[in-house]
From TrEMBL:
Keyword annotations of the record: Oxidoreductase
GO molecular function, one term: oxidoreductase activity
Protein name per its UniProtKB record: Methylenetetrahydrofolate reductase
Record bears the keyword Oxidoreductase: yes
Alphabetized SUPFAM superfamilies for the sequence: FAD-linked oxidoreductase
Amino acid sequence: MALSFFRKDTKPAANTDANEAFLKGYSIEVMPRTAEKVEDFRALLPKGTRVYIAHIEGTPIEDMVATAKRIAGEGFDVMPHFPARIIHDKATLADWIKRYQTEAGVKQALLLGGGVNTPAGDFDSSMQLIETGLFDGFDRLHVAGHPEGNKDIDKDGGDAIVLAALKWKQAFSERSDAKMAIATQFCFEADPVIAWANRLADAGVHLPIHIGVAGPAKLQTLIKFAISCGVGASLRVLQKRAMDVTKLLLPYEPTEFIAGLAAHKAANPAFGIEQVHFFPLGGIKTNAAWVTENGGAAGVPANA
């Protein structure tokens, strides 16, 4: 894996038409505790930005709904996570959906298996959540994607089970009124992501891809999140780099990764990646500032 995305020069790269077009309409992920640190999202994010609200095991639903209500009230589309393995039963799921809808006007959801090994109740996968019918009437449903694979699902290191699940979701999208897309785990290298996206298309999966991108962060922070999220190949490269103390202190920016994907998208407009989804591992403000500096009109805050 190329190491060129670690830059000694922290000045923003020149804005290009390709980068600006690729970053336009980006989304970003927050948690209730990180959202609390932002006084007003309108000072950071472009108008209409989709804000995912990550539901970490143990977070009270009251905190999730309050965060959704607050961010929606500032004029942004909110997309809360529904992790199947932390939801006890259909009654709990129905209660969560009702709260989000009545208190925050939520019409979008990210459905995923969830980052725990043992289900807390009746659900084990996003497909089971879909099959409840409780998300009928939602405007938009996103599902998870793993360009580097997911060993929690495909324990042999392949992708047969994950690919079969995506084909099922593709078929569901064709009979659903909801707009659907694949939101992926964060990645670091353009070429493997391009190959993965093309593999999905060749397999008949044409759901738009919203590619996960790690926002600017310290290397130590990046390694911590990569370990917790199971980012395999990327983690090995990060750990190797961390052995060099002089490089350990260098900041990470997604400049090279974005530029590589943006150039490919510009040359291949039908390419499956539709948008960028940021994981603000170094902080929401830092991430938003990086897009403002590197994304041209794509990064202009709502109240600018």
